[in-house]
Amino acid sequence: MEIYYPLKKLPRKIDVGYLLESLYYLSESIQQVFIEEGNIKVVTNIDNEQEILTKLERLIDKHKTLRKLPKKIIKSNQSESTKSKKAFSFAEINNSGLLLKGDSVFLPDIFEKLFRNIALKYSANLRKYPSLLSKEVISQSGYMSHFPQNLYRVSEVKHTSEILENWNINNDIESGDYFQNNDFFMQPCVCYHVYNEVSKDSSNAKDCCEGDLVVYSAGGKCYRHEHQQRLSDIRLRDFNMHETVFIGQEDMVQKLRLSLIQDTWDLFEELGFIGYIETASDPFFIGNDNGKTMYQLAGDLKYELRIKLENDIDFSLSSFNLCGDVLCKAFKINSQGKSSFSGCAAHGLDRWIQGFLYTFGADSNRWPKFVREMI
C-alpha cells in the first residue's frame, strides 16, 4: 500500500531528513520511505493507512521542537581538484554481516591492531569482552530507554524434558512454545563493559582518575536490530567495533578526544582516503528525546569521520564522543567525591574495511605497503 503526506503540511523548519529516518520505526509494516512529487511516500505491506497517518502526525508534533542546526566541519581534505581513486567494490554481505575472502580476512585484525596501537599511545588498558551484556548493565546504561529499536535479546530453549522431547520429534524452530527470554542482550556497543568493570572495581570507582585519566581499548562483535529497509553494504546488524574509552576529569577527557581525532585523521590520510570530520548526532527516535539531539549538536559532543568515495558514496567510519558525566553517574564512577567524565572513540571496523576494499580492491598487491606488511 502507498501512503502520501504532503510536504507543504509540514512545519517550515522541520528537519525532513531526520523525520524520514524515524518514520521506519512507526511500524514493522513499513517497507520504503522517500520523497515523491512534493509528498512523503510511505510504502507498507498491509492496508493500514489511517494507523500510519495517525502515528505520522504524532511524530511530526514531536519533531516540531527539534530545530535544525547546521553541522560544522572541523577537518577536511576535500577540494574541487581532488580525484577519487579507482572504484572497486564492497565486500559481499551475508546474513547482514561482511563475508570476507582471501587476504581480506586479515583486515579486521589489521584495523583492530591499528586502533589498538593508537590507544596504547595513551597507556590504554587492553580488554577483550564477551558479546553478551546482562539485563542489569543494559538497563543501567540507559541504552534501553534511548535506543530500544536497536536491541537484540537472547532467547533459549527451555530446559525441560517435555520441551526437549517434543523438539526432537517436531524440530519446529518457529514455535515460540520452545523458547524463553533469558537475562542477556547482544551487545550493541563495547563500551558498557568498561563502565561496568570500572564500577565493580571498588578502588577504581572510588579513586578513578584523580589528577589523571584511565583509558581502555576494547574491540568486539556488536549487534543492532536495524530496520530491514535501512540495511546496506554499510549499515549492518552484525559488525565489528573497536572503542577507546577514557574516564577522568573533564578537561583531560576533552583533550584526549582531540588527540584521538588527530591520530585517526592521520591514519585516514595515510590510507589515502578523502573525507571530512563534522558534528553529528545519534538518532533518538523513541520518547521525548528531541532535546537531547539539539544539545548534542549544539555542544559539539559528537564528531563523525566520514569517507567520500566515487558515485557520491559518503558514510561514517568513526565517531568521537563526549559523554559528560551521564554514564559515570549511571555506573557510580566518581573522582574526588563527584561523578567523573568520560568519552570514547568508536571505530566501525567493517565500515573501514568497506571503504578500504572499495578504494584498493581485494587483491592485496594493490594495498598500501604498511597494510600488506601487517598480513
Explain what this protein looks like in three dimensions:
This protein has 375 residues and is of the alpha+beta class. The protein has 3 domains: 62 residues, Alpha-Beta Plaits (2-Layer Sandwich), CATH 3.30.70; 265 residues, 2-Layer Sandwich (BirA Bifunctional Protein, domain 2), CATH 3.30.930; 32 residues, no CATH class. The strands form 5 sheets. The chain has an 8-stranded mixed β-sheet. About 1% of the residues have low confidence.
Task: Compose a concise summary of this entry.
The chain has about 375 residues and is an alpha+beta fold.
Features of the shown structure:
375 residues, Alpha-Beta Plaits, BirA Bifunctional Protein, domain 2, 3 domains, 33% helix
Outline: globular
Strand content: 25-35%
**Largest beta sheet, briefly?**
8 strands, mixed
Count of separate DSSP helical elements: 13
Q: What is the CATH level 1 assignment of the largest domain?
A: Alpha Beta
